[in-house]
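PT: before anyone asks, these are the final sequences, not the draft ones from last week. 722 residues across everything. Please model them as a single complex and drop the result in this thread when it's through.
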Amino acid sequence: MTSTPGRRVTLADVARAAGVSTSTASVVFSGKVNVAEATRRRVLAAAASLGYAGPDPRAASLRLGRSGIVGVVISGELRHAFLDPVTTAMMDGLTDALASVSTGILLLRDDPRGDEMPPITEAPVDAVVLIGWSGRTPSALEIVRRRGLPVVMIEGDAGEGIPRVTLDNREASAAISRHVSRLGHVDVATVTLPLDADRRRGAVTAERVAAATVEVTLDRLAGFREVYPDAPGVTASASLVDEGMIAARALLTEADGGVRADRPTAIVAQSDLLAVGVIRAAEECGLRVPEDLTVVGFDGIAADGLGSLRLTTVVQPAVAKGRAAGEQITRMLAGGPGESVHFTCTFREGETAAAPPHRAG
Amino acid sequence: MTSTPGRRVTLADVARAAGVSTSTASVVFSGKVNVAEATRRRVLAAAASLGYAGPDPRAASLRLGRSGIVGVVISGELRHAFLDPVTTAMMDGLTDALASVSTGILLLRDDPRGDEMPPITEAPVDAVVLIGWSGRTPSALEIVRRRGLPVVMIEGDAGEGIPRVTLDNREASAAISRHVSRLGHVDVATVTLPLDADRRRGAVTAERVAAATVEVTLDRLAGFREVYPDAPGVTASASLVDEGMIAARALLTEADGGVRADRPTAIVAQSDLLAVGVIRAAEECGLRVPEDLTVVGFDGIAADGLGSLRLTTVVQPAVAKGRAAGEQITRMLAGGPGESVHFTCTFREGETAAAPPHRAG
DNA sequence: TTGTAAGCGTTATCAT
DNA sequence: ATGATAACGCTTACAA
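LR: through. Structure below.
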C-alpha cells in the first residue's frame, strides 16, 4: 500500500523485495509453473506492499508477441454504425467468440483524417475484423497484409485468400421480392441502402449503380431486379427509420404532398429500419399497410420502439455472423487456416404484405 | 514485395538491407530527426522490398511507455449501451477529443465472467474512461489506480481525486418537474431508469430506492421528488422505447387493459426513449398526448424514428460530455492535472406537455 | 548526418 | 522449485 515512488514498480522490484529472482516472481503471476506456496505468498505480499499492479501489459505483449487486442474497422461513422441493431448484434457475437483470446475490441477510426497514417498502422492489434466496405478498405487491407495480421472481412470482398463472412443477400432479396410478386404486385419500388461512400440520397439510376461500391446494396438490388428488372428505386443515406421516411415520401407523394396516382403498390426496403420509415411515411399520407401498400424489409432484427409491428422480412443471423468472424480469428490466432463462412437468411411472414388494392384502370 | 520468410521482418533487417544502422532506419520512420534524402530513400526501398510494414507497435509501446490506446469501460451490456443515442453521442465526442493521443478506443468487457481477472488488468491502455456505474466499478478503479493510469469517470462517483464529468441531473429533473407542476398537474408519476445492476422492473418503493446504486437514476428521482414527494413511480430495465411502454402500461391501465380511473395526468420519464414509449402506450389505450396525458423526457437527443415528435424535455450536452472526458484524459496524459467538469441541461419546450384535463370529481 | 549502446519490463529456456 | 540469461523490436541520448 505504499504511495507513488519516483519510478514505476516493476516485477524486478517485487522480486528483489521478496528475495527471489524475477523469473520466479514472473511465474507467480502467470501461474504457469509450480511455485512453492511459501514463495508464492512472499512474492504476493511484496507485490501488495509495493503497490505492484501486475505485469505491464506492454512489456508482456512484446515478449509474447500478442497484445490480446482485436481491431475492428467499421466503414462509415461509428455513431451510424452503432445505431444499427444489425451491427450491434454482430458486435455482440464477435466479442463473445473472441472472449478467450482477447481482452477487448479496439474500435479503429476509418474517417478521412487527412494525410495521416491510418490507425491500423500503429495499433498493437493481434488481428483485424473489417466490417463493410469503404474507399479506405483496400489500403487498410494492404497494411494488415504486410503486418501479417489475421484478418476477417464481414460483408465485403477482400480478395485473394481473405476469409469472409457473407450473407446470401442477392438470393434472400430475390426471395422476398418473389413473395411480393406472388401476391400480385406489379408496380413495385425499392428503397436501398447507401450505394457508395458518398451516401447521397436520390433516385437509383443506371449511372449511380454503375459507380456504386457497396456490395451489400448492389447484391440486394440485384436480387430485387431479378424479379422486377425495371422497377424504380430510391437510395437512402443510411439505414435509419428517418431515412426510410424520406425515401418513401419521394416514391409516394407529389411535390404538393398529395399521394401520386402512379405510386407503387409495394415497396421493398433493403433494411427493416428503412421499412419502418416507409410504413410511417405511408401512414402519414393516409395509406394503410398492408391494405393500400405492401412494405417488406430485410434483417429481421428486433429494433427498439417498433412496438408490436410484425414486419414481413427476411431474417439474417446477425449474431451468428459476428460469432463466426470471431471464431475464424480465434482459429487463425491459433495458427490454423481461416475459412470463409456463408450465411443464409430465412423468410419471415409478417403483417405488412398483402395483395395489391384494386385500382381504377 | 517479397513473400513470407520464416521470421518477421524487423527494423534491424531493413537497416541491414539498406546498409544503415537501426537507429537511422528508426528515424526514417518516425521522422523526428533529419535524414539525408538519399539515405531515406534507400531505407524506404529496403523496407518495401522486404515487405516491412513499419515499426511494431508492441515494441514501440514498451519503449515509449504508451500504447496509444484508451480503454472505455461501459457498465452493463454493450449492446444496450450502444443502442442508446446518449452513449453514442458521448462516444463521438470522446473519440474526437482523443484523436490526437489515441489510435482508438478499446471497449472493455465489464461482464461478470466469474473469477477471472477483469480485462483492464491485462489491457495495454494508457488511460481509462469509466462510464456509468456497476458493481464492478470499484474494483476496476482499484486496478486502474494501482497501475497509475489516468482515469476519468462519466456519470458516477469515483471518489477522491478522480476527475468526473457530471450533469446537473437533480436540478434539471426538478426543473422539468416544476414545469409540469406549473401546468397544474397534481397526479403525476415517474418512469425511472434502472435502479441497480439487477435492472429489475417494478414499482419504485422505499426499499428499492434505499438499495439502489445507480446515481443518475437516484439524482433524477430526487429532483422529481423535490416537486412531487409522494408520487408513484415505475422503474424500467433499460433506456428503451419498449421499456417505456411496459412501464406506462403499469401506470395507466387496469389488469383488463382498460384505463385506470386514478391514472396520473402527467408522466415524467427519466429519458427521452422512455418518454417515447410512454407516449406510444398512451396512444395505444386511447389517450391523446398532451390533451389527456402530459409526457416529458430527459436527454434531448434526436433519436432515429421519432419522426416529427417534439418532446418536452431537458437537453443534456452529450457530445460535449464525451469531449470533456477526452480532453481531461489528454491533459493528464500530457502530465497535467485532471479536472472535474460539470454540465448543465437546458429545458426545451415541445408539444407533449399541457394543462391537465378537467375531471369529474 | 549517422552510428553505438543502453535500456523499456517481461517471459521462456535451460541449468541447477 | 528456483535462478541466470537471453531475447522480444524498438527509440533515443550521446558520441563520432
